[in-house]
Predict the 3D structure of the following.
Amino acid sequence: MKKRYKIALGGIALCLIIYFSLPMIIAKIGGASSQAPEQMNENLSKEAMELIDSAYEGLNSNDIVDIHTHIAGTGNNSDCFVNENMQSFSHPIEFLKFQIYLGAAGVNDLKNVDEEYINRLVSLVSNNKNHGKHTLLAFDKNYQLNGEADLSKTQFYVSNEYVFKLSEDYPELFIPCISVHPYRKDALSELDKWGKKGAKIVKWLPNAMNIDPSNPKCDSFYEKMKEYEMALLTHAGHEKAVHSEEAQKLGNPLLLRRPLDLGLRVIIAHCASLGESQDLDSNNKKPVKNFELFLRLMDDEKYKGLLFGDISAMTQINRVGKPLKTILKRKDLHSRLINGSDYPLPAINALISTIELQNLGYISSEEKKYLDEIYDYNPLIFDFVLKRTLHLPGNDTLKLSDCIFVNPPELL
């Protein structure tokens, strides 16, 4: 009994230590930039300002687009919500993850998440004179094949109404991207509703939402999307928020052959640059890197004009190897790549390492110094300038092309 008592006391003590250490943990792993974005122009060094100017050189700010910007809320001023497990200390990993996301988004008051999240994002974007427009992503619930929502497996929810409202409130800053689950009983009428209001992109995260893009059940959904000339922006590859191997199978890029073969335009988020999936094109179905499967689809002649990739998260520490090097080398693919920030992820310190990028040869020590300056004020500008600055290690001339950062007319 004494041993059990000591173990219980030890567990309680550990929980208390973690709880009271949370602010320091969050600040170390991820949090909003330490300086106010509106003070950046006054306080940055001349060299850092020149690096920013050079990143926007040759681009028309009216054409610049960020196709992958997350919005979130807990429902205090919207109909959004976050799974209760992420808000409960009884689920410490999920709880800590949520706290890090909130810290990265500049949220301090848990009773005022919706307002603080959007106010911070508006401040970051509007304090960039070359901001262009950010595509705000709605995020539908997890649905089962019978059309019923499964809230226990829904990590978070952002309604189509909310992203449209924000885009109407800030038309100079945001573009709405709807999210409609194809298994919903009202899926087609929901597409009709938002298609008539001008929605042009539908966001999916199959691993988290329980969507098999190759399921014939989705065919009528794809046809309805085509009626409104919509494009599908979908995650592919492994998803860190999902722990079920069965769910991870839904991130196989090859499952997207079905909508592509039906003539739907598809944008694969992050260029499917994490994890492995079965090679469904071969008899042995051995695991292959998802990024290799993405390239296989991109190299298929029949998908030119239909298949695109977004480069959000490609500079994060877990993707800066072969995926980033390949994207830099493959100039032939640049006209089919689109920039995205994956905000608020660029503000999570643990995901971004300028010292690693310097060590790998993507940026110089001087560039690292000035990028770090920018990061302290505005992680969104940092993300953009980093991508415009980095080059293939050993070849200063191989950079990401201008066309990646501007509005592709065939999509938006």
About this structure: Residues 13-21 have pLDDT under 50 and may be disordered. The CA atoms of residues 19 and 89 lie 8 Å apart.
